[in-house]
Design brief:
Length: 105
Amino acid sequence: MTTKRKSIQTITDPLLEPFFITKDEYSYTVKQNVTSDASHFRSKGKAKTYEKSLYYYANFEQALQKIANLKADMESFNSLEEYINNYMKISTNIKNYTNGIRSAI
């Protein structure tokens, strides 16, 4: 007997951009919207936007932590201190936001 798959939920927020999370009955998937290059030889002159699955996690906190890591890695830094401060800022913003939502529930 086969069971019907449940729907996939999408979690987007400006704090997570350019990434987002989808949730199904088994895992949380960190994804990114990617726009193809219109000048690529296979594109036929048209740019396409598609979802690229990056990572799969068993729980929501792991997915959020990965997004914090990815966002911190998007910039260049001149020192380890700058990198750590930026990472902590991103991570703290995400944690404070999600903790605020949990406390309101």
